Amino acid sequence: MPHHTAETPTSNATFTVPNTLSGPKFTHATASTTPSVISVAGALGESVHVTRSNRHRRKKKIEYSGLPQLSFPAQRISTRNVPYLQHPTLKNLAFALAKIDRYSLIYSKTVLEDAKATRTPSPGMNCAVELAAVEAAIAQITNGIEGLTHFTESYLRSLEFLKSWKLKRSKFIAHWRSLPVKEVARNENLLKLIAKDLSQLSKALVEVAQYKMLEQAYKDALNDRWNVIIEIFDSFSLLTGIQIPVPTWIEAAAQLTEMQLITSSQVLDLDCTSTLMWPTFLEIVLLALPTFALAYQHSSHKPETIQDADFWFQVQASSMTFLGLLIMGIPMWKERMLSGYVWYWTWGAMSISGACSFSAPVIYCYAPIEWASLGIVAGALQAFVTL
């Protein structure tokens, strides 16, 4: 396994090791930290007091090299505006990668907080600036994971997160060597979570390769992160004897090689918007026009009353259409999931669809009943809004 070293200058500064594998600092690293991370950190909380007690008895500090610079281009991680990742497989890849990167960012945040509190950063390093950058990156990643923003292509290419993983590797290994084996074993649950997320990342990577969208820049960024993470698992296994199954980059690369044998003609991109939109459009035309013609032919060509059973069938269909609009519209309004011109024409289409839903029963009573089929238009517009 290749050994990665920090690329930035180091110093001989020393500071007391923060137990960021567990305890209060880890659990409140960010307000958006997921429950799984919080529960694992809480379960490991007992080791904080034991660790501090052991350090106090030994009356010595563990020597560390200086902190690497951890500035992150937070504005390039996720965004509400275009351009952002459009293809579903790339979105899944960024989502899986973000869940893993968030572990290292939360750890980096805690290390920086400790360095700031003990005034032991590297020479020329502004902990406040670095801490703000890491916090911004955590916020951007969390927003992307929760669907509030969209991940960008530059995030998949970025090598900045390798710094935080190298920091985590060096601190983890040095910290574990200072602890009894039983205390190191307490971190098994946290590593199992990371291993599970790595498995999801491996699956997402294969899907991207299947659609011939895996660029070399993506592979390079993932390869570097992956190898550093595996070194953390190897060190844990060496110190405790506990083997945690985790997919390696070699295994993932072997699956990618198999995917390269699939030709583009063998892959039908059913997730592409245009692929779904035009067949849907043709179906609407082929169904709506003939049925409207038949309805017109058999229509009485006069208004009906609410005593007619067909009126209540019309009310039922319109209500279902309007309910579908609400189910789509409320989340979009709340989270501003759309942006720019897409936002305006989508809401325009939904407004027309809602108007048709309300007007169809009224038209049934005051105009020739065939025109009540405007409810069909409402349903068609709703389908296009969904696409």
Automatic annotation (TrEMBL):
Keywords: Membrane, Transmembrane, Transmembrane helix. The chain crosses the membrane at residues 276-297, 309-330, 342-367. This is Uncharacterized protein. It comes from Venustampulla echinocandica. The lineage of its organism: Eukaryota, Fungi, Dikarya, Ascomycota, Pezizomycotina.
